[in-house]
Prior knowledge:
Blueprint: H1 8-14, H2 18-29, E1 45-47, E2 53-55, E3 60-62, H3 77-89, H4 96-103, H5 107-121, E4 131-139, E5 162-169, E6 174-179, H6 184-194, E7 200-204, E8 218-222, E9 230-231, E10 234-235, H7 237-254, H8 262-273, H9 282-291, H10 300-304
Parallel strand pairs: 4-7, 7-8
Antiparallel strand pairs: 1-2, 2-3, 4-5, 5-6, 9-10
Helix pairs in contact: 2-3, 3-9, 4-5, 5-8
Amino acid sequence: MSQSTISTFQLFAMIPDAETARLYLEARLWPNGVVCPTCSGQDRITARKSGFYRCNKCKLDFTVRTGTIFERSHVPLHKWIYAMYLMVTARKGISSLQLAKEIGVTQKSAWFMLQRLREACGGSTGKLSGLIEIDETYVGGREINKHESKKRKIGRGIVGKTAVVGIRERGGRTRAIVVASTDRATLQGLVLANVDTDSVIMTDEHSGYAGLGKSFLAHETMNHVAGEYKRGFASTNSIESVWALLKRGIYGTWHQVSAKHLGRYVDEVSFRLNAGNVERHTLARLDSFVNAVDGKRLTYARLTA
């Protein structure tokens, strides 16, 4: 077995029950001691039974779940940890049906769990820099394959599909964002908001990217229509490989992703390429996942609104 990963058997030996999962989460989320999720205080906290704590300053009873994606979930914490393990080790993701079978919950509960975990995958900060590859893709079924009642009958190609713009540092981080349009204002505003101006931009010849060279160190374009995919150091092959991973997950694992929830699936793929990269040890990937769950509570009402 690779030294960069652990087996399911090893994970169960390390975190066999809800109590060890709670202690693991507390150690990750509160490395310097218990912290009140409301006032962030540490000096007036009293430990109670079964992992509960009382903040005597703001009179709040809380656990390590409070204020995280685990809040108000009845699923034991060690099952949450196993679900996180499956997400960071499955290259093309895991379906709610498969997760339901693995941990013994209903498919509806598994779907809600996975959406909460995807919520934790979002929220990347800091601008990307260096050699930057940018490309866009469209997600959605082909009009010709849709049921007659679902066809929009206003054309083909990208009709009825949702656009996703991807930005990737050469050899570094990946960021992907669902957008309502791929016009010049949207694309260039997105690039300026996410990329340091002291960077070299590489794109195809989409008209929405025209003029980016004025805002950045340089702008290299690939003429895909003429069969050009690489010129010297310039290419967009790396960001296009992200789309291959995303679509393999959609076609082979999730099967159907609505435009409403697409952003979370895109965040999951980005997380798996960044903090969840397979080149990192499995435990390091799990630690990064746990670090991201705080402040990301997602209620079922908001999810299905």
